Each structure stands twice: as structure tokens, then as C-alpha cells.
Amino acid sequence: MDRGEKKETMSQEQTFWSVECGSEDPQFLVCMSCLNEVFRCKVPMPDCPTCHGVSTYEAFTLESIRDWGTEELIAKADTASKFEETPAEPSLVEKEP
Ligand SMILES: [Zn+2]
């Protein structure tokens, strides 16, 4: 009867620390160890998913990342910035004709 206990969590969800970022502060946390991960206003915990470095993240502006980052890093930062701009709730109000 009650056999629904077995939950299979296929996706290994990444956990994040949220980082307080003011609108004028650098909001993009880049892993200085592998330079391959960037997140906006949050850092993965307990360590970097790519190089497993701890406390390797430093904050930069998107502009600065575009200046020195690899194409991949810039693309990720770009995605992160776009992701943040779209509202979290999927409740898009559809305009009726
Ligand atoms: Zn890393």
C-alpha cells in the first residue's frame, strides 16, 4: 500500500550558498582555480563541481569576465545573467486578444 517511499533522485542537484550582492557589486562568482565555473550571487557548496576546490570563488562583474574570461566562461556568465533576468515563476500573464 504505502510503497511510495522509494524516491529516486536521479539528478544530483547542486547545492549553493547564496551570496549577498548589491546591484552595484560584482555579482558573478568565478572559480579562480579552474576558471570554468561561474554563478550569479551564489557559490556551489561544498566545493567547486568542476575542480572541487574549496573557497576558490571570487566575485567579478560580467564586464570584467568578458574582458579576461574564456569563451566558455563568458557564455556561462551570460547564461547566468539571462537566467536571473527571467522571473522565477512561470506565471506569464497571457494577454487575451
Ligand atoms: Zn573550480
State the major sheet: 3 strands, antiparallel
Question: Residue share in helices?
Answer: 10-25%
List the uncertain runs.
none
Mean pLDDT over the full residue set: 85
The number of helical elements comes to 2
Principal-axis shape equals globular
Q: Which strands sit side by side, in order, in the main sheet?
A: 3-2-5
* SS-based class: alpha+beta
Strand content: 15-25%
Cα distance, first to last residue?
A: 49 Å
- N-to-C order of helices and strands: EEEEEHH
Task: Enumerate the distinct ligands.
Answer: zinc ion
- Oligomeric description of these chains: single chain
According to DSSP, the number of beta strands is 5
* C-alpha-based Rg, rounded: 17 Å
How would you sum up this structure, described in words?
The chain is α+β, with helices and mostly antiparallel strands. It has a domain at 19-84. Helices cover 23% and strands 20% of the residues. It has helices at residues 62-68, 71-85, and strands at 15-18, 28-31, 38-40, 42-45, 57-60. The strands form 2 sheets. It has a 3-stranded antiparallel sheet with strand order 3-2-5. It has a two-stranded antiparallel sheet with strand order 1-4. Strand 2 and strand 3 (38-40) form a beta hairpin. The radius of gyration is 17 Å and the shape is globular. The chain starts with 14 loop residues before the first strand and ends in a 12-residue tail after the last helix. The structure holds zinc ion. Zinc ion binds next to loops.
